[in-house]
Specification:
- By secondary structure, the chain is α/β, with parallel strands linked by helices.
- It has one domain: Rossmann fold (3-Layer(aba) Sandwich).
- Strands 4-3-2-1-5-6 form a six-stranded mixed sheet.
- The longest helix is centred in the first third of the chain and has 15 residues.
- It is globular, with a radius of gyration of 18 Å.
- The two termini are about 20 Å apart.
- About 5% of the residues have low confidence.
């Protein structure tokens, strides 16, 4: 394995590569407009949130997908078909940064809490084929159960996904990069030698300043065409 192939570039998706709202919220809005989100769905979601909150506040909301319970999984492909008419608002600087890594032979990996079926369905709209690690959901008889399969990919789970990918592919994390915009990305950012907070929330910005990390701003203007360049690796290449 060559030196560039041992370098990973790990990207969060929602808010880092794509403008808000998240994929999941976009899918929810699609289902709501279609009349698929019924009162029962909201009641299931609220009941699960109430039971889970005292045990694990994060799981009460992040891992609570009970609004999907009983909905057919075919709606994912139908929703993805609407993206052709209204392309995903990917941040130009983020897309450029993915291309920048790919041109150098780095392994580009999405590590995101968004729902895996949604991200796989819109993968053709990404700037290149990339590896996807996202939150899997249970589907039985082609219906969503409302349960997460495994764990929700946020906080420590993101760091674990990065370390598994590195172990399986022989990546050097000390030379690798990670990009995220929320404090839920912090553990992932800490696993690599080149952490890059992007459009950081105030919580992540506070943690970044404590650690002496630079914070990047990726433009949301669709007309921006400039190629984002990572200072740390650029300096290494110039040596």
């Amino acid at each position: 394995m060559s030196e560039p192939e041992r370098i990973g570039a790990f990207f969060d998706f929602d808010g880092t590569l794509m403008e808000p709202p998240s994929l999941e919220r976009r899918f929810f809005a699609y289902l709501y407009k279609r009349g698929e989100i019924q009162r029962e769905n909201c009641e299931r979601w609220a009941a699960h949130a109430t039971r889970a909150f005292l045990r694990e506040p994060r799981a009460a909301f992040r891992a609570n997908k009970f609004y999907l319970a009983g909905i057919h999984d075919s709606f994912v492909e139908e929703w993805a078909g609407t993206i052709a008419k209204n392309p995903l608002p990917l941040l130009p600087d983020g897309a450029a940064q993915i291309r920048w890594h790919l041109e150098r032979g780095h392994r580009v990996v999405l590590v995101t809490g968004t729902l895996a079926p949604l991200l796989r369905a819109v993968a053709s709209h990404l700037p290149a084929r990339v590896v996807i690690h996202a939150t899997e959901v249970e589907i039985t008889n082609q219906l969503f159960t409302g349960c997460v399969h495994g764990e929700h990919l946020s906080f420590d789970a993101k760091a674990s996904a990065v370390m598994r990918e590195a172990a399986e592919c022989g990546l050097d994390l000390a030379e690798s990069f990670a990009y995220g915009n929320e404090v839920s990305d912090l553990a992932m950012l800490e696993t690599v030698g080149h952490p890059m907070p992007v459009n950081a929330s105030w919580r992540l910005k506070r943690e970044a300043h404590k650690r002496g990390w630079s914070v990047c701003t990726w433009s949301r203007a669709s007309r921006v065409k400039k190629k984002s360049r990572n200072v740390a690796l650029a300096a290494k290449e110039a040596q």
